[in-house]
Amino acid sequence: MGLVVKFGEDKKGARRKSGGDALASLLALVEEDLGRVNESILRRMESPVALIPQLAGHLIASGGKRLRPMLTLAAAKLCGYDGERHIQLAACVEFIHTATLLHDDVVDDSDLRRGVDTANAIWGNKPSVLVGDFLFSRAFELMVEDGSLDVLSILSRASSVIAEGEVLQLTTANDTDTTEDQYLEVVSAKTAALFAAACQIGAVVAGRPHAEEKALESYGKNLGIAFQLIDDVLDYSAKQATLGKAVGDDFRDGKITLPIVLAFRRGNDQERAFWRRTLEQVNQTDGDLKEALRLLHKHDALEDTVARARHYGAMARDALALFPSNAIKDALIGIVDFCIERAY
User: Fold this and answer.
1) Domain containing 89: what range?
2) Among the ranges given (39-53, 74-88, 215-229, 285-299), the one the predictor scored with the smallest mean pLDDT
3) Cα Rg of the chain (Å, integer)
4) What is the mean predicted confidence (pLDDT) over 299-324?
5) 3-class SS of residue 251
6) 64 CB contacts (<8 Å, ≥6 apart)?
7) CB 217 within 8 Å of CB 201
8) By C-alpha distance, which of 310, 213, 222, 301 is closest to 264?
9) Rounded Cα gap, residues 222 and 316, in angstroms
10) Helix or strand holding residue 117 (H, E)
11) Which of 63, 179, 283, 304 has the most CB within a 10 Å radius?
């Protein structure tokens, strides 16, 4: 079962730059700074406790695109910043992200990430949690060294919101009565908060007006929501295999994501009974994933989740309207396409 939706055309039919091209364009614009960020990350992972750099390095080297720190670097450039602070702060953002991944994999009991064995699959849960805590601590050291109370407030608040999102997700786990609003609350906290903070601090270090700071925060938040919604779709896509995960991992774990919320709400009593058995009770048999895919397509749940992502993507683009047109702004707009195009 495939999801076929035309992509890359605006309302007038004009072809936009593809998401992959947009990512390459952004990387080219921040490549030198990103190299310095990577050097900072490696220095800050050093520890006399050998397992710490070994375990953290395993995850950091496992193929991530460094999207969040790239957003910090690009936002600072968009605001005309030519100092040094954005380098360490981009490293801080990556440490926060990596720490949450280590904790996520433990909570989710994940064995693979981006096609590579997770740290908890190799070293166990306890070392993964503790090294995640170490990376959070490194992130806070970088915040304090920056010396800005505004930066400290933004990034520390994002860290606490992410943790709240993780706990909130546990309360909705395996609950088919979860509403779309409740799920979006989880997404806004768990994923979008760091995207928003990563972008916002670019304006802060540049000393830009509050309006620009809030615009970049809005861009990041809406981009992050779109990013997560596409992740929800990908779990039920054949493309998932290229990302190192099996199709239907979320289903097998009983996770309630937006496609499930939509299909459950639109289904009949018999279909809702199916979702309760497979997701609430996690009582699954051969053929249940195939049936889940059938119901998701029957009720347009995947297509409509992509449509929701496009909506948040449009809001992300609109948030950049007050910035003058230039290569950085074009690349940031293109990153919206990159995040959504992953579904195809």
Assistant:
1) 19-341
2) 39-53
3) 20
4) 97
5) helix
6) 114
7) no
8) 301
9) 5
10) strand 116-117
11) 304
Q: How many CB atoms lie within 10 A of CB 311?
A: 14
- Residue 61: CATH number of its domain: 1.10.600.10
Nearest to 63 by CA among 242, 226, 228: 242
Q: Which residue has the tokens 């579904």?
A: 343
Number of H helices, E strands in the chain: 16, 2
Burial of 289 (C-beta count, 10 Å sphere; 0-12/13-18/19+) = middle
Contacts of 336 (CB under 8 A, 6+ apart): 223, 226, 313, 316, 317
Give the H/E segment covering residue 112. strand 112-113
Return the structure tokens found at 134: 């170490």
- C-beta separation of 199 from 336 below 8 A: no
Alpha-carbon span 271 to 120, nearest angstrom? 36
**In this structure, what are the phi and psi dihedrals at residue 118, rounded to the nearest 5 degrees?**
-70, 160
pLDDT at 47 over 70: yes
State both tokens at 44: 């800050």
φ/ψ bin of 80: left (φ > 0), alpha (ψ from -120 to 50), beta (otherwise): left
12 part of a folded domain: no
Residue 9 in any domain: the answer is: no
Q: Which two tokens stand for residue 326?
A: 């230039």
Number of domains in the chain: 1
The four Cα atoms 258, 260, 261, 265 give a dihedral, to 10 degrees, of 140
Strands 116-117, 112-113: pairing kind: antiparallel
- Which amino acid is residue 15, in one-letter code? R
Distance CA(13)–CA(259), nearest Å, equals 28
Taking residues 29-51, report their average pLDDT. Answer: 93
Instruction: Choose among 192, 194, 169: nearest CA to 182.
Output: 169
Cβ–Cβ < 8 Å for 232, 258: yes
Q: Is residue 13 part of a domain?
A: no
Question: 291 in a domain, yes or no?
Answer: yes
For residue 213, which of 138, 286, 319 has the smallest C-alpha distance?
Answer: 319
Average pLDDT, the chain: 89
